């Protein structure tokens, strides 16, 4: 069976062919009523607000950190998402769920994912760490290049109290 397409002048699909219909409705179907469109827009707005209120953390890091916080991003849905400090103070809540000497768990509510991610990154940056930074290799007879070996040594996690280190002067060998 041969398929054909109704084309208009210049080889483009004609309006009667149904090609290029953006509405997704069958040919001849009635357009949606205003109430249906309004209800759909409200539901989309609720889904968007719910998504913006939650930051999902996975083992690889946060999952939904995309930013939709620029003013007017959801004007078509009737949502004003411009920044308001008073509204943020009123809606932001932080509850500590677990606290030990080495571990803290907390919930933040009413904060956009980009701000929560920034807070997470600040906390990670403030944790003191110890790592190998300078490596001197006298004779390497292995298959790994000196630079790769030094880099891999720098990636090894070292559990150590940084305050107990005695720093070597920078001009010393």
Spatial extent as radius of gyration: 29 Å
For the largest beta-sheet, the strand count, sense and barrel status come to: 2 strands, antiparallel
| Overall spatial form | elongated
How far the N terminus sits from the C terminus, by CA atoms, comes to: 83 Å
Task: List SSEs in N-to-C order.
Answer: HEEHEEHH
Low-confidence stretches: 1-21
Count of individual beta strands: 4
Instruction: Please indicate the percent range of residues in DSSP E strands (runs of 2 or more).
Output: 5-15%
Mean pLDDT: 75
Computed structural class = alpha+beta
Query: Helix coverage percent of residues?
Result: 25-40%
Q: Count of DSSP helices?
A: 4
Strand neighbour order, sheet with most strands:
1-2
Structural write-up:
By secondary structure, the chain is of the alpha+beta class. Helix content is about 30%, strand content about 10%. It contains four helices and four strands, in the order αββαββαα. The strands form two sheets. The chain has a two-stranded antiparallel ribbon. It has a two-stranded antiparallel sheet with strand order 3-4. The protein is elongated and about 80 Å long. Residues about 1-20 have low confidence and may be disordered.
């Amino acid at each position: 069976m041969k398929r054909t397409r109704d084309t208009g002048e210049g080889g483009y699909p004609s309006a009667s062919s149904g090609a290029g219909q953006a509405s997704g409705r069958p040919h001849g179907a009635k357009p949606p009523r205003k109430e249906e469109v309004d209800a759909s827009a409200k539901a989309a707005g609720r889904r968007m607000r719910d998504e913006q209120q939650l930051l999902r953390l996975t083992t690889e890091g946060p999952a939904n950190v995309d930013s939709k916080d620029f003013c007017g991003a959801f004007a078509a849905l009737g949502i004003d998402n411009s920044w308001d400090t008073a509204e943020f103070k009123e809606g932001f809540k932080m509850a500590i769920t677990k606290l030990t000497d080495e571990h803290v768990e907390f919930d933040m509510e009413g904060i956009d994912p980009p701000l929560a991610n920034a807070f997470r990154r600040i906390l990670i940056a403030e944790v003191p760490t110890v790592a190998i930074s300078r490596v001197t290799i006298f004779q390497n007879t292995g298959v790994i290049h000196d630079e790769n070996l030094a880099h891999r040594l720098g990636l090894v996690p070292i559990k150590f109290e940084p305050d107990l280190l005695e720093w070597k002067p920078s001009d010393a060998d």
